[in-house]
Structure formats: C-alpha cells, structure tokens
Design a protein that fits this description.
Two copies of one chain form a homodimer. Chain A is of the alpha+beta class. Chain A has three domains: 105 residues, Nucleoside Triphosphate Pyrophosphohydrolase (Alpha-Beta Complex); 77 residues, no CATH class; 73 residues, Winged helix-like DNA-binding domain superfamily/Winged helix DNA-binding domain (Arc Repressor Mutant, subunit A, Orthogonal Bundle), CATH 1.10.10.10. Chain A contains nine helices and eight strands. The structure holds a DNA duplex.
Chain lengths: 309, 309
DNA sequence: TCAAAAGTGTTATCCTTACACCCATGT
DNA sequence: ACATGGGTGTAAGGATAACACTTTTGA
C-alpha cells in the first residue's frame, strides 16, 4: 500500500457562522463590532475538525454548540496577502445554537444578519433598498460595459439573481458575489474605489462571503430538514415557529398552510400548555418530536409562500 | 484591523472523484487497481484550491476537466496514523468529464462505481446482494447489541437507510457509514476482524467514503441542476440521456414522463439529425441548450420514478 | 365591544404518476 | 410480419396555494 503524495505545509484556520434566534430575529455571533466572524486555529491534537471547532467555540463562548455543519474550504491567495504572505486554508462551519451565548474578550456580539444583507429581508414586502439602490447601481454596471455581449451577460445574471417577480431566497451567496464583482461592496476594494457603497455593513477579509454562504445553506436546508427546531426553545407556539422560519427565509409565509404542513408531517406534538403572551387568543404550546429523526428521513418545513405580504 | 489567529501548520492533500460515463455506465478514475482515488498535493503557488486541483488532474490525465465542485474537507486522526503521524487535511472534489482520459503512470483506470457499492444499483430491480447479504448481516448486527435501546436505535437506522419500500438513492454515504459502523466493510479494520466482508470492493484510507460522498452529491444534484449534460457527448438521443440519468441515480425511470419533463423545461433542442444505432426506430438527436444556464435558475432533471422496473 | 392573534374548513390549480397507444426502422 | 425502441395523448391522484370563516383572549 503506497503512501499518498506529500503535500506542502500551510496553516489551517476555522471560521464559524454561529446562528441564533434572539428576539425573533436571525443573529450571528461576531467580533470587532460586527466586522469579523469568530475564527480560531485548528489545533492538531483534536481527532476531527468538528471537535476542534467545538472546542474553541465552546471555550470562547462558554456554551455548548448544537447542530454543526461544514460549509466550505477556501484557500484564495487574496486572503494570504492580508497576512504577510503565509498561506492560509480557511474551513468554515455553520453552527446553530438555541440560547444566548456570551463570549469572553474581543467585545463580541450578536448582530442581526440583515444588517449585512438588507436586500435579503422580504418579510415586509419588497425591501426598499432593492429598488432604490441595488437595482439602479446594477443597471449602471451593466451599461458600463462597452461590449454588447458582456452587457447581455450581465443583464441576464442580474435578472436571474435579483428579479423581483421570481425572487429565490436561496441565492444569497450568488447575489453577494454579483455585487462584489460589480464593485458595489467595499470588500471589492483596490482597483474600483467604490466611492458610495451600498447599504449593508461590510466585514473584514472574506467573512461576509462566508456569512452569505452560511445563510444560503441554512435557507436551503430548512426546506428539506427540520433544522429550525435547533434554534427554537423546547416549547413554542406555532406562531413563534412561523416567525422563526420567516426570519430565516426572509419572506412572509401563509399562516394556515404553514400550520397544516407542520402537523401533517408530524413534526410537533402538543405539550398541553398554552401561552397567553401574544395579545390575542392564547396559543397552544408545542414541542419538536425528536423521535421523528429516527422514524424516517424527514422533510423540513416546506415553505408555503405567499406572494402578497 | 487585527490579524486572525495564527494556526499551526499541517499538510494539504487534494482528492478527486472524477466521474465519466463510459459504455453507458458510471465510472470513476482510480489508481492502484481501483484501490485509490487520484490525489495530489496543493502547491502553494496556485491562486485557489480549484486551480490547484485542475492543474494536477490535467497534468496527470492530459485532459481538461469540466465541471468541478468541492465535496468535503476531512482531517481525521485515523488518516494521519497511516502517514507517519504527520497531520493531513484532505480536501475532496467531484469532477465531471465528458471523455475518456488516460493517466500517466500508476496504472490508472476507470472503474464502474457499482463495483464499490453493489447495493446501490437498482436499475434491474432490487439488487440481489441486498436481500442475500446486506440485510441479514445488518440484522445480525442489530441482534448483537445487548441493550434493547441500542437495538431499537440500530433497527431504526437500518429501516431509514435500507428499507426496500422507500429506498432513497441519495443516501449513499449514510448507508456506507452504517455498514462501516456495523463492521461489515474491510475498511472498518482493526478491532472487528470482518472475517467475511460484504461484496463491494474496498479502497485504501477513507477513499471509499469520499467516493460515497461524491456519488451521493451527484445523485442529489441531478435533480435540481442540469449537470448530467456535463457527462454527455454534444449530441445524444433522449434514450441515451435517460440511460445516463438512470446510471447515475441507480434506478429505472418512467420513459414517457422523463421525455416530457426534459422538453417541458426547455433543456434541450433538436439538432435535426437522427441516430439509427439503437435497433428500433431511429431517434432524433438533441443537444443541451447551454444558454438556459443564463436564462434562469434552472432545475435539473427531476426523476420521474417508476416503482415496478 | 372591538382588536388581535389562534385555529378550522373548503376549493381551485398544478404537478407528478400512470396508463394506453401509435410510429418508424431492421431483420 | 414482428420485434425493438422512439414518440404522443390523456386521465387519476396528491400536494400546494388561496380564500372564507370561527374562536378565544385582553383592553
């Protein structure tokens, strides 16, 4: 049995997109006033990457980590340039946690993720920033190309990713990358000055790209795996569950059909209790039926979308 | 702007699951008589991981590589043990290629992927190996647990992943990992002797796990992205296209509905030519409409499954 | 009494699955 | 003639999307 090729040494860095639902909003854990995702070294004495990630996240946040999933591995030269030429491979993870965590040092904090991607929040209808800022700038970028073929290509990409009529909430990463390419986000840096960047907070390095990857993955996943429950408290009302899914997907859902889908699939069971916190009629409390994960390959919460708010 | 944490140095290795359709069968490129996937070092002078991968694959195979997609990054300690204690991070990729490629050195070759996973081929009905070998051994493994709770857990996992009635072709990796855990594949090694392993060729290191990851990813992907065409010749008949999808998915499809789905979605256009190679009535030739990738976020070939062959 | 949110029932529409059948060629 | 694979039309069933309406609480 031959040994595999001997590769050259580089450094490994782990990045985490840590998501929690706080005050019914999707929040990510950040450092440096929201400009960095938590990241740490992979220490060689861990048996796997996941245990390494769990170790420093839990050390940093003093809180156990729930669901964890690998996102992507980058090793772009552009990253290395920022760190004195040493090659860095960065492996990013998505982590879901149920409760508020507080980190030690580095002034950490939870940030609403729509702070970074305001055009992704359609819960209140079409976001204003889209019509007022994003689309006009993209159109200017299209017109800036002299070659008509290039113009056509740019227009098609804009139509696919940003068309209002057929908005696809899963394309978070593609949209961010298009804006990057168009020089409309500060991270694009260098050549293009980006005198007047779009609304949406930037981050250092490629952390906003990693965040976009995490949001996109999570939005896709809730449709075919019941991962929302990793973010919910043990007991919840169906209304709260709907708000949670809406917060993640960034779009309003159709109430009646959402409820039907949820209990048709047997995802939840009544606890017997009620919650009178919401103002109207008290709502029954439910809990996630963990057993279902073992019973069958279960689908997530399909999204019963509604066009008009 | 602070610099990120300085991680410790390790070695990077790239692995490729290179897939082609040869003689209407799904084949993967291997070395060492089918026991290894092609792998190579990541050389630091490449701008990205993908270009690094493309470079050595093309150097080794003398053939350009088509579609490429990252699969997963592993850094399990068990791998390192096999290579004198040095820590290795292995980043694996799925690559699709349209034509026969021949590699230099290391006696490479294409292998039918069902050689490694015979229970995954349902094109001719339920595979014999499932009823005759896999299920009985899994049942013995279930009964081997003394704790009834453990037995119940094992039974549920078997039911989810291997139930004949609700076979899910995407669960290739989960099924392999269950067999690994049950000690039914030689790679499980060490403790359990595995006196009489299951049919299905083993591979060195965790290469069979990586292959399972690639097959699973590809099977899932053909349902929502038109990637089959990366494996087809420029012109093809709808019958050949169906055979291709069946080969990848490992199950028979419903002819009429497959055809309807394909052209309803506008994925192909007629070339005008016909092929008289198949014995019966000559079939029209089609080509993939590449433009469609730009026109809209296009779905792949949904699988119109048929229960009875 | 009214606003606000919970909760139930029914209908229209589309997509998937399935079935039945005809067409063009080689032997 | 008939076997073989190519190709077309249509009906049944189920899931989704949409609509109308009732119930229970707090202010």
């Amino acid at each position: 049995m031959p040994s595999p090729a001997k590769p050259r040494a580089v450094a490994i860095e782990l990045n985490a997109v840590l998501v929690a639902l706080i005050d019914e909003e999707p929040q990510v854990l950040t450092l440096e006033d929201g400009a960095l995702l938590p990241s740490g070294p992979f220490e060689g004495d861990h048996p796997t990457l996941q245990t390494g990630l769990r170790a420093w996240v839990e050390r940093q946040t003093h809180h156990p980590l729930g669901y964890v999933e690998q996102l992507y591995t980058f090793a772009d030269r552009s990253r290395a340039a920022a760190t004195s030429g040493r090659r860095i491979v960065s492996i990013s993870y998505l982590g879901l946690t149920r409760e508020r965590v507080t980190a030690a040092g580095h002034e950490p904090g939870w940030q609403n993720w729509y702070r970074y991607f305001p055009w992704e929040d359609w819960r209140g209808g079409t976001p204003a920033v889209l019509a007022r800022q994003v689309m006009p700038r993209l159109r200017r970028w299209i017109d800036a190309a002299s070659d008509p073929a290039v113009r056509r290509g740019r227009r098609q990409r804009m139509d696919i990713n940003f068309a209002e009529a057929s908005w696809n909430e899963d394309l978070v990463l593609q949209r961010y990358e298009l804006l990057y390419e168009a020089g409309l986000v500060p991270e694009a840096g260098g050549r293009r000055p980006t005198t007047d960047p779009l609304p949406g907070a930037p981050m250092h390095y490629d952390h906003r790209r990693i965040l976009a990857t995490g949001i996109a993955r999570l939005r896709a996943k809730i449709k075919y795996r019941p991962v929302v429950f990793e973010l919910m408290p043990p007991d919840f009302t169906l209304g709260q569950l709907q708000l949670a899914v809406e917060a993640l997907a960034g779009r309003p859902l159709h109430k009646q059909n959402f409820r039907r889908l949820i209990d048709q699939q047997g995802l939840v069971e009544e606890t017997g209790g009620v919650s009178a916190e919401t103002g109207g009629r008290p709502a029954k409390l439910y809990r996630f039926r963990r057993e279902i994960l073992l019973e069958r390959a279960v689908a997530g919460s399909k999204l019963p979308l509604s066009r008009s708010s």
